Structure formats: C-alpha cells, structure tokens
Amino acid sequence: MSHSGTDHGTSGAVGKDARRRVLWGSFIGNFVEWFDYAVYGYLAATISQAFFPESDRQTALLATFAVFAISFFIRPLGGFVWGHIGDRIGRRTALSLSILIMSAATFCIALIPSYAMIGLWAPVLLLVIRVIQGFSAAGEYAGASAFLVEYAPAHRRGLYAAVVPASTAAGLLLGSLLAALLSLALTPEQMAEWGWRLPFLLAAPMGLIGRYIRTRLEDTPVFRELENEEQQAHSPVKDMFAKHWRSLLLAVGAVLLNAVGFYVILSYMPTYLSEELGFGATESFFATTIALLTYIGFIFLTGLASDRFGRRRVLIAASVTFILFTVPAFMLLDTGSFTAVLLVQIALGAMLTLNDGTLPSFLAELFPTRIRYSGFAVSFNLANAVFGGTAPFVATLLIGAMHTKLAPAWYLVAAAVVSLLAVLRAKETSNRPLAH
C-alpha cells in the first residue's frame, strides 16, 4: 500500500462526529492524568510539613522534590511497557489502563497517614505511590498524542496534537486553582493537617469518568490497518533501537526544552516565587493560574503555526527565544512588582508553547506507525525522567550552590541550546504521510 494512499484514506474514512469524540476523549483523559500528577507539585511546601517535618524548611522542600524526581525515574520503564502495549495491542487499551492506575494511585495519596502518626513509613508510602503515578503517566502523553495524530486530517495534525499539551495545562490549571482556593479558605494549620488531602480525593471520580469515555472510542484507523495487514512490529522496542535509534536521539534532544521548561515555568514557579522571592502563597498561585490560562490559548495558535510553517521552524523559534530572553525575564521577576511577575510568567508561558504546541505532532510524525507509541513514549519519558522531574530539585540546588536566584534561568538556557542542536539535525515532518 502506498504511503499517500494510507494517509488520505485515514483522514477520509473518519467522520466529524468520530473526530469530535476522539478530541474530547483525549482532552478529558489527559486532563485527569495531569491534574492528578500536578497537585503534588503545587502543594509541595505543605506536603513537606506532613511527611518531612523534622528537618529545616529547605531540606524538607528538597526531600519533597526528591520524591517528585524519583517518581520520574520509573517513567522510561513505563514508556517501554506502555509503548509495547500501545503498538502491539492498541492505543485505546493502553490509554484506558493508564488512567485507571493513575487515578487509584492519586486517591491513595490522600489516605497516607502523616509522619507524626507512622514515622518513616509515611515518606516511604508516598514514594511508592509516586512511583506508581510515574509509571502510569509514562503512557499518557505519548499515547494521547499518537491517538490524535493518527485520527487527524494530514494538514491539521499539529492543531489536533496541540490538544494534548492544552489538556495537560488544563489539568495543571485545576490543580493550581484548587491549591489557591484552599490556601485562601483554610488556615495554614488546617491546610497542613487535612486541607492538602482534598484535591487528591477528587482523583477517583474523575478517573472513572475519563476511563468510561476512553473505552467508548475506537482504535485509530492507521493502527487498525496495520493489524489487518499484520505489519505490526513483533517487538516495537527492539525495532526502535535497531532501525530508528537516530530518530530516538533527536527526539530526546528536542524534548529537553519541554522537560525543563514545563516543570520550571508551570510547576516549580509558585514555589520559586514564595520560597525564593518572598511573594505570598496565594499571589504565587494566582500568577501561575493566569500564566496557565494564557498558555492554553497560545498552544492552539502554535499548533496551527506548525501546520502552516512546519514543525522545525517553530521548534527552532522556541529555542532561540529561550536562549535570548530567559535570563532578562528572571531578572524582572526579582523587581518585587507583582504586575512584572504576572507579565513575565505570561511571556515565559507563551515562549514555552512554541515548543510544547509543536512537539506532540513532531514526535508522533518522527516514527512509523508500528513503533510510534514506543518511539514517542521512550524518548519523551527519558528526557522527562532525567531533566523534567529533576528540574524543581536542580533549580533549588543550583540557587544554593551558585548563590544566585537566576540559576533556574541559566538552566533553561542550557536546555534550549541542546534542543536547538537536535532540531537543526532533524528533517521536517509536517505534511508527510504517516509512514508504515
């Protein structure tokens, strides 16, 4: 079968209603997964008091972020497992399972007794559950992106895939809003004692809704064609390393800016503003919430731009803007003006969307259908494990080691340089058939 025939056949065979269901199913499922995952990051300072209360504040915070980072190290393993399930059994099966595991694990965090009640077992249980969360998250972003790209019309793959980072940010947004509302409504004592547990309890009902929607979707047309033709890779991971290792390396490099940028700008920032720059917790959450709202709007514009101008151009623009403007932006954060903080966060979020809105379609198009889920999941999770989950920890550590509050900015610049070099070596992927 010719490549072009496959691609046009895919877009022609799918009706508008089916596409709408796929878009909503992907949005809601991904939204639930990343709300579950993000709440921990936003409530890190409070959680550190519940699970690491014996040490001084910075050590407790580092311990909390270390647990955040360790949960990421399971993600490459999760990438291999979910990639294999997604490429061998089906995208839908992998996505329906991952949301169930994530929601159950998140719900369990709400039930862990504090350090005061069970001592060392409290942080140990927290770590185990975070590892389960990390394993589940490994299948989500890659699977949802592959699912959308394979359902999208060829000239709209960038826009469709942008639903994934938009829904991720929407999940973060709800987490940020809940954290802000709780810090407003409750006293610090109530927050430390039981308030932080409330968002985690939401995971169970939300997860069941997400799973219900996902099980009602059909697998993607190109995957079903592959099944019919019996062209599936017997071992997708082995195939990926043997024949597509160059694409894998380029993908890891391209993801680096996303990994560091996403977790520094959208997850670590409230902690940075309150702990390092002395802003109130409510102000810090409010600034991040506004930044997330504008980020969601910008992400769809980026998806459209990548369809119009190509993935490479937009990804190159993302790296260049970070190299030029990150350090000056962080300097403005330290002026003490809340308006400046708000504008800088919006600007940094907009810069990040140039990368984040383009990356899902770029990575999905980089690999052929029979190893698409594996290639995306392994590269994305490898970069996020080593550089994304560790970003809040490294940022906190660098500030102490370099004695400058600008340390996270220089870390972002370094990530942007690596991503730029990787994208410059890659070929343009937009408007090419989804090769078998």
TrEMBL record:
Q: Where do transmembrane segments lie in this chain?
A: 21-40, 60-82, 94-112, 118-138, 159-182, 194-213, 248-265, 285-305, 314-332, 338-355, 376-402, 408-426
Q: Where, subcellularly, is it found?
A: Cell membrane
Q: Which SUPFAM superfamilies match?
A: MFS general substrate transporter
**Keyword list, A-Z:** Cell membrane, Membrane, Symport, Transmembrane, Transmembrane helix, Transport
Q: Where is the Major facilitator superfamily (MFS) profile domain?
A: 22-431
Q: Does the keyword section mention Iron-sulfur?
A: no
InterPro entries, A to Z: H+-coupled_symporters (IPR051084), MFS (IPR011701), MFS_dom (IPR020846), MFS_trans_sf (IPR036259), Sugar_transporter_CS (IPR005829)
Claim: tRNA-binding is one of the keywords in the record: no
Where in the sequence is the signal peptide annotated? none
Q: Which family does it belong to?
A: Belongs to the major facilitator superfamily. Metabolite:H+ Symporter (MHS) family (TC 2.A.1.6) family.
Q: What is this protein called?
A: MFS transporter
Q: Which organism is it from?
A: Sinomonas halotolerans
Q: Taxonomic classification, please?
A: Bacteria, Bacillati, Actinomycetota, Actinomycetes, Micrococcales
